[in-house]
Every structure is written in structure tokens, then in C-alpha cells.
Amino acid sequence: MAFFETSLTCEQLKNRHQAAWWRTRGRRPVVGVSTDMENVTFEPHATVDAAKEWIAKTCHVVSRTTVTDVFLARSRQPVGAPMMTLVVDPIRGSRGCVLKMSHTLVSHETFRIIQDFITEMARPENELGIDTVFSPETWSDIRPNLPQSLAHAYSIHYHPTPADLEEVMKIQERAQARWSRTTIGIPLHPDWQTRPTRIHSKIVKFEPEEAVAALKSMKKLGVTLTAAFFACITSAIAQRYGSGDEEGAHLLFSGNARRWLDIEDGYGRGPITMGIIPGGMWIDSSEVDIRAKDKHGLTQLAKAIERRQGDDLASPHVMGLYDQMAPILAQGLAQPQDPAAFPTVGRPTLTSQGPLRDDRPAGPGQIQMSDFYTGGRNTDPNVCFGLHSFRDELRYSLIFDERFFVQDEVMQLAYAVAGLFRSLIAEELVPAKL
């Protein structure tokens, strides 16, 4: 979701939203892609009536609510077609918009889609409506910007040898073996089998001076911001829920295929808008203190995480392996789940989305994005932490299902994580001048 500031009236924004969304589709046709468990389709629209019908289904305007409330409501809806919601005349807070899209289609692309939509709403010609800006879609115009799958790009650029396949199978065997080891984690609610699903997407923000101090601290400590934050998550969970008898910490995270492929242009075959690869690692409690409380201990834990982070991503051929596994996983998810197959604890999980910026000036008639947050729908038995920054302001989200976890307990954990992180960067904080 994004908040924005503008001198444009709500009426002007409403008049422009349809043409703005249509032109966003021209730049980012992924918003016109429909998907289900088996198929991904894109239908070009040759008439303005067809375009209007698509817009009516996928771009809505709401008022007398808040951007945050719309964001939460959308995250609780089942994943369907991409949908943009423009929020005008809110009961509190700024105006803004919310984009809901399936994670099978996009990862970090959501920020760019929202950027383009806001840019288009600032164009005066879009106030005349879609009839004045419409031009029929043709395959020759759309194809260069249509997304390609990670599996497709991999199949073109990589041709594994038998030795490559043997190596990647060993990686997968090691990854699977971790699930049988005793690990720290967040205990699932004892009544999770009968509790209803209720998605939460929470945000915790650091102060601007804390973000600056964090960057200075990481440079001095010789660790990445992501590894340091993951260390704080791990330690907080271990301290709060660990018995001390666990073999270690089984950590889950998301890797990015940009390490192996050009995901922006896709080598002229279209962008790879979903380039995320699931990753995992094992941190052995006999090698490092997973309950570290002080700066030295947290730094050592962060360095151990950094060393282990590449274990599951040691070969580009994991992209091909996950493509082969996807149909089996999808079929399994479609079947009734055996409660005995569920883990007893939610593994520590982190996605790091990096820095996001939108520095366009907010002059007369312009629209400036004043804030941006990521979130979504997570029905897995874990609490997914998402670390990112907007204009150098550091924050993290927590996405979880109340079916498995109690909201108050998750937020207590969130503040414990923040406390550990603040202790790690405390020496670099400059006291405010009175």
C-alpha cells in the first residue's frame, strides 16, 4: 500500500483512475495476467468496452475509510485477479492506494506498479477518461513487456549436466533433513485445527536516526543488515520459546534469482516479475549462541547466518528443481491437510525487500508517494517477517494467520526483536540536541 500527497482534488483523482490504470497495464501488463493453480493467461483487449469491463473488475475507488483498513481487508480476501484500490476522502490519514496481487506473479514489482499508477494519475490528459487514451492491444506491442516465468528463463540459459543434477539433489536432501531436527520456533496454538483463519499484517517502524545508526553499525560490525536483523529474530524466538534442548535453529528466507539471471529485462524476452526462490539454513546451537543477548553474541550469530545463507542457493539449478517440484506441491496443497504433517513450531522466517525510493517532487498537480508498506496474505504456520526501507526509513512487517498464532503474543515478540536490534546499534545513535 502507498500513501500520497497531492494538490489534486478527490474528484480529479476519481476522474483519472480508469485511464491511469489502463496505461499502467500498458507499461506493466502483468497486472492483466490471470492465474489459477494450473494456468496463467493474458487476454489482449481490442475494444474500449472490453478495456472498461476489465477496469471495472480490477480497479476500484473507495471513500470514508482508510488506506490501512483497505489494505487489511484485501489481505484477508482469497487471492484472485490483480486489483488496485484508490482511497479518496479517507476518514483519517492520507489518501493512497492498495495493490493486491498474487505472489506467484510478482515480488518486488508491486512497488513499481504503484509508482506507475501514481505517475499516470498525475497526467492531466487522463482526466478525460479512457476513451481518449485507449488504443487496441496487440500481441506485438504487449509481448516485450509480458512477464516470463523463472522456469522459462532458466530453461533457456541453463542446461544442467548429470553432475549438476547430482549436486542439486544433495542440496535438496540436506534441506529436507533439517525438518526432522529439533529447532527453536514459535509454538502453534494448541487449538489451531479448529480456529478460523484471520490474517494479520502488522508494521513496526524504526526512527530515522535508528536507520542511520543501523547502517553505520553494520559497516563496523562487518555484517549485512539482513543477517543482523535475522539474528535478532532468531535470538528473540529462542529466548522466548526455546527450551535449551534444541539442536539449533532452522531458518527460512527468500532468495532472489537476480544472482543468476537478468530479471529486469529477461534478455529481451520479458521481465521476470517473480524471481523469488525459497531458501533455508541450519544454525547449530553447538557452534554459536542462538540465544545471544549482547552485541558480541548477536554479531557472532549474524555472521553465522551470513555464512550459512548460501547453502540452499549454491547452485543455479535449484531453479529447475523447484520448477519440477511445483506441481507436486500444488497438488498436495489442494488435498485435505493431515494435522500430523504440520510442524509443532513456526520456523523463524524473513524476507528482505531492500531499500525502496520515490523521490519525485510534489509540485502543483503532481503526486508524491509519502509512504509505502508491504504486506500480504500468509496462511502458512509461521510468522513471516518482512524487512524493507522507504526513503531510508527502516521498518518491518509481520504477516501471520491468527489460526496459528495469538496476535498479542506475536506483537510482544516483534517488540522483543526490535529491542535486540536497538541494542545492537545503540553505540552509533547520536543523542538528540535539546
Give a quick precis of the structure.
This protein is α+β, with helices and mostly antiparallel strands and 434 residues long. It is 38% helix and 20% strand.
Can you tag this structure with a few keywords?
434 residues, alpha+beta, Chloramphenicol Acetyltransferase, six-stranded mixed sheet, five-stranded mixed sheet, 13 helices, 15 strands, globular
Explain what you see.
The chain is α+β, with helices and mostly antiparallel strands and 434 residues long. It has two domains: 2-145, Chloramphenicol Acetyltransferase (2-Layer Sandwich), CATH 3.30.559; 150-428, 2-Layer Sandwich (Chloramphenicol Acetyltransferase), CATH 3.30.559.30. Helix content is 38%, strand content 20%. It has 13 helices and 15 strands. It has helices at residues 10-27, 48-58, 67-75, 109-121, 130-133, 139-142, 150-157, 162-177, 208-221, 225-241, 295-308, 318-334, 407-425; strands spanning 2-6, 33-35, 40-42, 59-63, 83-88, 95-100, 186-187, 199-205, 248-256, 276-284, 345-346, 349-356, 367-372, 384-390, 393-401. The strands form four sheets. It has a six-stranded mixed β-sheet. Strands 4-5-6-1-13 form a five-stranded mixed β-sheet, sandwiched between helices. Strands 2-3 form a two-stranded antiparallel ribbon. It comes from Penicillium bovifimosum. This is Condensation domain-containing protein. InterPro entries: CAT-like_dom_sf. Residues 347-373 are annotated as: Disordered.
